[in-house]
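Readers of this paper often ask what the protein records in our data store actually look like. Nothing more is needed to write down the fold, since each code stands for a local backbone conformation. Below, we set out a record of this kind in full and without editing:
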Amino acid sequence: MPIVAQSDVRKISLRLIEGASLASWISTQTPEIRAWVEASGFGAAIGEVLALPGESGISAVLVGWGSAAARARDRFPLAAAAAKLPPGRYVLEPGDVPIDLSVEVLGWRLADYRFQRYRAGKASEVELVCPEGVDIERVETLARGAALAQDLINTPARDMGPETLEVAFATLAARHGAAFSVVRGGPALRAANLPMIEAVGAAAAEAPRLLDFVWGREDAPKVTLVGKGVCFDTGGLNIKPGASMGNMKKDMGGAATVMGLSEIIMSLGLDIRLRVLVPAVENAISSAAMRPGDILPSRKGLTVEVNNTDAEGRLVLADALALADEEAPELVVSFATLTGAARVALGPDVPPFFTDDEALAADLVDSSLRVADPLWRLPFWTPYEPLIEPGIADLDNAPAGGMAGAITAALFLRRFVTESPRYLHLDIYGWTPAAKPARPKGAAFQAARAVLALLENRYCRT
């Protein structure tokens, strides 16, 4: 459902009605409209719509706004109604209804996303006139960044391996004048001291690599984003069962998310020195595959015992984080589809985040609430540190027992960020299992808008 600027084209009013106000609104209408609404059974529930007749067709459309309690159950109530509207160009009439116009207009626009690489979709015939006070260019920029990430995640691994991800990454960098570089293949990764990225991707047909770009003025605050780019995850020699492997095209969701977020950051011109690092690999099986029990060196100098080859994401992230940390940026942020434990704890809609910085945590929670991009804090629980210390090596990539898996994975990553004053890790799912308002089934752009709001609040005040 596109967003359009104000024009002289005939527009249909969208009148938002809360459930508690419906009877009062009906009482002010003509007998004909009262009879029409009462006969329809319209109750002003969220997502409910009712077209009102006029002399030349539809005079207006009522949109249910439910109650505060109902709206708390899900986001983007305007988007819930958009898919049910007849073709036309609409203008909002919120009346006294509580509404955050910027959030709801963005939700309307996000609901328009369709993945059309393999099957053409029908263009939406429903348009919304951008309300006064809402920055239409910003809405389109946010939607473009989300669509970039969603397209990358939705693309099957056959067409989105490390090579293709590199092309997309380099194209993004070139579009914004960022300085792009890549370390590609085993010999180059060894020479660059990125041994765990090499080990994870050694069995794949396409060479493992580290993608890197830098953007922004040199003396601006340094922010580094690191995204897990496992383009497909078989589990390696600890092979996943078929049911668990079926959706592993999304295991590069962290990479896609930092790319979508970077598209937004650079388009908006945030005043930061942005660095983006993506270890791009495929966790495959061949004679070159890493084995359970192998001990790997790392860029940080720590040794890692591989007790499960299916816990590979933290290995590639660790080398990339160690590289990021050497510059001691003001903030390091990692995005990764890292653990099933995070999904068990919080489900698909609420990614956990980890940080030791209390002020940063508070700012991020506030940002997530303001932009309707939910997150929940989990602790870097230091008493669990012994769980990731196997004795035979410095670290264990897959502690036995299965408890606190999201936390132990986060603790593992924290060992590789020691020089930067602030580290934030987000364990995203990157997928919407069933369609919801403004979130079509498939790839999800999670936590990025919350982080964007955090960055704008902290580093880009005018």
